[in-house]
Each structure stands twice: as structure tokens, then as C-alpha cells.
């Protein structure tokens, strides 16, 4: 798939992040592949997949662009999304089209510029997962092809919000950054608001593929509601 094709297919569309609750009943590569196909059947234009087993199970089944990442606990750092050059290589070889990594200002084993270069050397596109405007702009200037609001709310120096960080999306969009809104988009209205705020595309995860969490949202509301029947 060419870069132009990937860019065009993502524009204004929904990226389905298929990352089940780890250890839960859907946490099997075959189930993740099925979730991915179901979201594509519903109109998602691309997938976001974590971990090599899930990526390898899904890649042969679709030509839709895949954002790949690995999460790992790396000693001495809080950076857990694709921290290493070996992760970039593994994701590239497993067929990711876009490789996402943490581009926050936290202590990291490999500098952002080096990760950007490695992704491009493999002929893949970069998605820089950020938590603030400064991080996003820096990653964009370092050559990222997409900047995600993914990590807003997940670093100590970003705001803790219940919903998506649309202010971050708006600020990055205004600065000319190709920004993907990601994180705590729970409803179609959230997705539309993100596009209005300037997002190039929108990634939704839990609301589509973490059934335990979405079920719990209903259950919690019912528990607190008076029963009138
Ligand atoms: C912070 C972090 O590690 N985010 C991860 C990144 O891949 C995933 O756990 C999220 O599910 C994904 O960003 C989509 O967000 P939401 O599930 O809120 O729609």
C-alpha cells in the first residue's frame, strides 16, 4: 500500500483499536482477528493492534491499514508503547503499515528521532502517541506522519479528563499537525466532535472492543438508578 493510499484511506475515518482486556475471554489472537474483521465490516477504515500475536493473526485477513504497537514493561522507564528499536523491527516485519510509539517527554531508552528514523527505514509510517501539545509538535517536527492524543491523561503532566482531550486535538490541528484523536472516545458524538476539532482520523478502542468495560458502564448506571417497575 502506498503512503498516499494510506493517508487517503484514513482521512475522516474510524480506526478501530482491537485490544481486548488482557487475560479476559476475548484475549486470543483468533478472537482479536474476528473483532478486527467485525469492525471493518462496520466501516472502520483501519485497525490498531497491540502485540505481535494479534498482528500476525489479523494481517493475512485484511488489506486495511494497520497501526501496530507493542506494550512492554521496560525497566527504568514508564514508556511502554513500542519503546525499543527491536519492537519497531518486529512490527514492521509482522506487517504493520503504521507503527505507533510513545513520543512523550518521559525518560526513554531510545530517542524519538531515532525511532522515527527506524520506522521510516522500514518503509512504514509513524504514529507518535503524545500527551501534550508540546510533545505532539516536537514529534511532528521530528518527522512523525501522525500524532495521536493517545497518552493525554496517562502521563503526570497531562490533564485527567473523563472524555477525550479535544483541546489537545484542536491545538495540534490548528498548528497544522496531522492529528489522530485517540483516548476515551466513548460515543459517535465524541468521534464527530473530534473531527470538528480538527482530527484527521479518530481511533476508538474500549467502546468497540473491550466488552467488559462497556458492559460495566451500563451496569454501573443501572445499579445507581431507582427501580420503578
Ligand atoms: C493509554 C494507552 O495505553 N492506550 C492504549 C493504546 O494503544 C490502548 O489501551 C487504548 O485502548 C487506545 O488508546 C484507545 O483508547 P480507548 O480505549 O480509550 O478508546
TrEMBL record:
It catalyses: an N-acyl-D-glucosamine 6-phosphate = an N-acyl-D-mannosamine 6-phosphate. GO terms for molecular function: N-acylglucosamine-6-phosphate 2-epimerase activity. CDD domains: NanE (cd04729). Pathway: Amino-sugar metabolism; N-acetylneuraminate degradation; D-fructose 6-phosphate from N-acetylneuraminate: step 3/5. Its EC number is 5.1.3.9. GO terms for biological process: carbohydrate metabolic process; N-acetylmannosamine catabolic process; N-acetylneuraminate catabolic process. Coiled coil: none annotated. One of its GO terms (cellular component) is cytosol. Keywords: Carbohydrate metabolism, Isomerase. It comes from the Bacteria. Belongs to the NanE family. Converts N-acetylmannosamine-6-phosphate (ManNAc-6-P) to N-acetylglucosamine-6-phosphate (GlcNAc-6-P). NCBIfam families: PRK01130.1. This is Putative N-acetylmannosamine-6-phosphate 2-epimerase. It comes from Deinococcus yavapaiensis KR-236. The lineage of its organism: Bacteria, Thermotogati, Deinococcota, Deinococci, Deinococcales.
Amino acid at each position: 500500500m502506498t503512503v498516499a493510499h494510506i493517508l487517503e484511506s484514513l482521512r475522516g475515518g474510524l480506526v478501530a483499536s482491537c485490544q481486548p482486556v488482557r487475560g479476559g475471554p476475548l484475549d486470543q489472537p483468533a478472537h482479536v482477528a474476528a473483532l478486527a474483521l467485525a469492525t471493518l465490516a462496520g466501516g472502520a477504515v483501519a485497525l490498531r493492534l497491540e502485540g505481535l500475536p494479534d498482528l500476525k493473526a489479523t494481517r493475512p485477513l485484511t488489506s486495511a491499514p494497520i497501526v501496530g504497537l507493542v506494550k512492554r514493561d521496560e525497566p527504568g522507564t514508564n514508556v511502554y508503547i513500542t519503546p525499543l528499536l527491536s519492537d519497531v523491527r518486529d512490527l514492521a516485519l509482522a506487517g504493520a503499515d503504521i507503527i505507533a510509539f510513545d513520543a512523550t517527554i518521559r525518560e526513554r531508552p531510545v530517542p524519538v528521532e531515532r525511532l522515527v528514523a527506524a520506522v521510516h527505514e522500514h518503509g512504514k509510517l509513524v504514529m507518535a502517541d503524545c500527551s501534550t501539545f508540546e510533545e505532539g509538535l516536537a514529534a511532528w517536527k521530528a518527522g512523525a506522519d501522525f500524532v495521536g492524543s493517545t497518552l493525554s491523561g496517562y502521563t503526570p503532566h497531562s490533564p485527567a479528563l473523563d472524555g477525550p482531550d479535544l483541546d489537545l486535538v484542536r491545538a495540534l490541528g490548528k498548528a497544522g499537525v496531522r492529528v489522530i484523536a485517540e483516548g476515551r472516545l466513548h460515543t459517535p458524538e465524541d468521534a464527530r466532535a473530534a473531527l470538528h476539532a480538527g482530527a484527521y482520523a479518530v481511533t476508538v478502542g474500549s467502546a468497540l472492543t473491550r466488552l467488559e468495560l462497556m458492559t460495566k458502564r451500563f451496569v454501573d448506571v443501572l445499579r445507581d438508578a431507582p427501580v420503578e417497575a
